[in-house]
Fold each of these.
Amino acid sequence: MERPDWKGPLGAAFDHATTYLGGLPDRPVRPSASLEELRAALGGPLPAGPLPPERVVAELIAAAEPGIMASSSGRFFGFVVGGATPAALAADWLTSAWDQNAGLYVLGPAASVVEETAATWLLDVLGLPARASVGYVTGGQMANFTALAIAVREVLRRDGWDVDADGLWGAPRVRVIVGQGRHGTIDRALRHLGMGTNCVVPVAMDAQGRMVPEALAEALEGGRAIVCAQAGNVNTGAIDPLGAIADLCAAAGAWLHVDGAFGLWAAASPRMRPLLAGVERADSWSTDAHKWLNVPYDSGLVICAHPAAHRAAMGVRASYLQHAEGGERDQVDYNPEHSRRARGFAVYAAMRQLGRDGIAALVDRSCELARRFARRLSAGGAEILNEVVLNQVLVRLGSDDETRRALLALQGEGTTWMSGTTWNGSAAIRISVSNWSTDEDDVDRTVAAIEACRSRGVGNDGG
Ligand SMILES: *Cc1c(COP(=O)(O)O)cnc(C)c1O
């Protein structure tokens, strides 16, 4: 067979990617194409015969580009979305070029060792126990799923029930105690695990969305439980009082899981770490690398203080698999996937590019810029609904209607893109500062755009 021309398609991708990334500060953040335009550009029948790879790439770029949301722009503040640091993005490209099956050590030794190393760095930076085990999953959703799978299996094993053999059919009930402000992925994980949402015991949260320890104490009296605390409420950024929660869980013998999809990274900053005091006492944690660490999608991390329970819950054995026998890391033992992408390369590269101080600075800078948003917006007459303790700001611009209209105008205007929510019954605009490249100028340009859209939103029909 003739050797394929790699430079053609990969060169086209490289040229487009560098042009795209270099143009991020100047392009509108929102996509420009409508659904109809995208369907027309990207639709049509599957070609009967092959096309030259370079042509496929060129046509994909031309057709998809108008439908790309510039979510790695420094002025994208929607949901909780990070960008990609240059080293992490390059490592992600290499991950595709190397195309390792990161399930077993024997299938990709470097992929395995990189995960081992990045895991050590991660535990150190986040202040978690050095002996904890780490699984590389697709995101916070699967990190919560994996942690809860380990938790329910282990909690029931301690009561003599074999989840591996018998599942949850007829098992003693395990209650899952959560704050009212939990993320929806907890409930979704419980559905996927066959535990169902009726096992959820919601306990009161305070005005910032933090779990109230007195309410937890009462709920724990009901017996066998998994407690899901949260570091970083998706609306307010608030962090549950983890020390008090850890005390209560220890006294009650409950499994403590901390969902820290973005908020766990606050522990990387010496200035912010006190907000998370006690976090190291949990049994399991979930976090994302694709949010605040600015690793490309998809990259989440599940961490467990009980490595044997972690491996027992996730592991797989088969006659044709060649398992490690000398202490090497077989990734299948730590995540629910079998074959998977070598996600560790990009996590490793992101952490190595930033270094310990760089990760702390990224966290501190994001929080400082969030406070800048709050200061400037409230000086202009906007209402800030939350205590800006982390990287999240909730803004209200007049009434519910005015706030929603201003948000729609803002999403269409293009300087920035952010999303909305309802907080304590009031419509609000959410600002999440999660991108490594965001600077003061991005914030100031965004504040000006918000103020312009606010005056447009007042008293008209929102055009
Ligand atoms: C984002 C988020 C999740 C879900 O993470 P994904 O990476 O989107 O799967 C879970 N919990 C919290 C608190 C989050 O902010």
Note: Residues 80, 139-141, 183, 185, 230, 232, 234, 259, 261-262, 288, 300 surround pyridoxal-5'-phosphate (CB under 6 Å).
Amino acid sequence: MINSITPRIEINLAKISHNIEKLIILYHSKGIEMTGVVKGVCGQIEIAKVYVEMGIKSIGDSKISSIQKMREANIEAEFILLRIPGLSEIDAVIMHADISLNTELEVIKSLNDSAKTQNKIHKIILMIEMGDLREGILPDDIDDIVKDVLALSNIKIVGIGSNFACFGGVKPTEDKMNHLTSIAQKIQKINPTISLTRISGGNSANYNWFVNTENTGEVNNLRVGESILLGRETLSRMPIPGLYTDAFTFVAEVIESKIKPSVPYGEIAQNTLGITPEFKDRGIMRRAILGVGFQDVLISGLTPLLDVVILGSSSDHTVVDAKGTNLRVGDEIAFSVDYGAMLSIMTSCNISKKYINVI
Ligand SMILES: *Cc1c(COP(=O)(O)O)cnc(C)c1O
């Protein structure tokens, strides 16, 4: 039956609410506050509203444009810019973000200049490099940077942070977290005038550390996105007990369904992606074409909820082996999504969004 626009993403806000509620209780049990991260859904207003309704007071996004969008929608929260700012976006950061994560003195000085002009005090969290080798100040350099930042009139250091499992796949272990705590204590000792109220240990990858540790040390904040949205920790993508992993369902529609050979015929050269594909001969099969392609969604992040196999895709078409399903034109196929698929869907202008409010 054709009853709804495709391709579409069905977003179950009740399941997201449930996940937030459970995670807040869990992390509070050892004194950790969650910054709710919405970058995986492009700062979608409907979802940010749910975060705030469920009690999240601090919202993080990697794009200043998303933060601006949420502000303009009057979402009442503290906004943290998660991706360290570039020199070209300083004024917007001061205007829209309450806090930004930072590692470069030159950028922080520029934030200070803009904050002066805009008559604001801008808060920063200094990110420490702890092995994952993405953003971060090397621990040996932190004292000098803190000293230089303290000389800036309109910048206030509110904390330090670390990030794991994003670039290098490095785990936030007990050792790493203890190291972060000791860095915080040292900064505090050398600079009694500053108050490091936020020690932000990481992201959804910190779940296993959190449940297994007896002592979270000074770590009192985690910036959590994927666990809220998809109900998983991110070191091995295990579901977190009691959370929904299916708040997002992607739906595509069959636009052609025919019995055809399994191997392309004719002289073979490159396809759209510039590769020369190879296919195993599996005789003739029912092949269904879905009206969605890699322009719309990261196809590799989709798992069909029906017993069909994705054979490949071009920018606007995806070909599936219909196997025994006898798919017809107009039939819909639902897929579960991973983080990459969710991200691509939520930033795609060609995918409609359908919100569901009941579990
Ligand atoms: C993306 C991001 C997060 C959130 O990560 P999740 O895996 O979605 O929990 C936290 N901190 C920073 C700096 C990020 O870039």
Note: DSSP finds ten helices and 16 strands in the chain.
Amino acid sequence: MIEADLAANLEQVRDEIAAAAHKSGRSAGDVELVAVSKTHDADAVRKLVDAGQTLFGESRVQEAKVKVPLLPSHLRWHFIGHLQKNKVRHALPIFELLHSIDSFELAEQVDRIAAEEGIFPRVLVEINVSGEGSKHGLKVTEMTKSLERILELPRLSVEGLMTIAPLGPEAEESRPHFRGLRELRDRLAQELGVKLPQLSMGMSNDFLVAIEEGATLVRVGTKLFGAR
Ligand SMILES: *Cc1c(COP(=O)(O)O)cnc(C)c1O
């Protein structure tokens, strides 16, 4: 019974989120679960909707354009993948939050199209905390300058930072990266005099550690939907 499984997965992940939040002195409501539905079809998403989930994450604009119209309109969608500049115009009407602004040039493009459309998109800036060359995101060393320029863009509402930790066998290996993102956020918020309340970090294998280090958004796919 797949239905029962997805509902049970959701209940378990929610329980674990609540436990990790309490352990770190926060309440379950301080952490939002983004159910990452990439590669899973609308029927699978509907099963989680029936179990009470309303927030979903997608990493391809093309896939979301097909899937989202098949599902109830009260659902909320976050974009979590690498956003190509030529997809921004299609992405903006679908997603309430873009997690993955990974260059000044992309931020500029989002700002330009938002001005044309008369909207103020909510975004997070993706940081490559580990410095791995294969990862998207701003390097920590170039961060302050880039973020300063992004904050000057009039249409963007920059709400915080996002990172993807290197995939290791142990969740604990992600902890220094998550802690690094939180410390970077604290420093930038102070230096630039801005509030950056959102920290998007943690996936199926390490979301508990991420919550302990201050995550406000966790992006969980496999633990909800099964293997892709
Ligand atoms: C796919 C993806 C996730 C979810 O990964 P799981 O390991 O399946 O939980 C989270 N964040 C990003 C950016 C992703 O691309």
Note: The beta strands are 32-36, 55-58, 76-79, 97-101, 122-128, 138-139, 157-162, 198-200, 217-220.
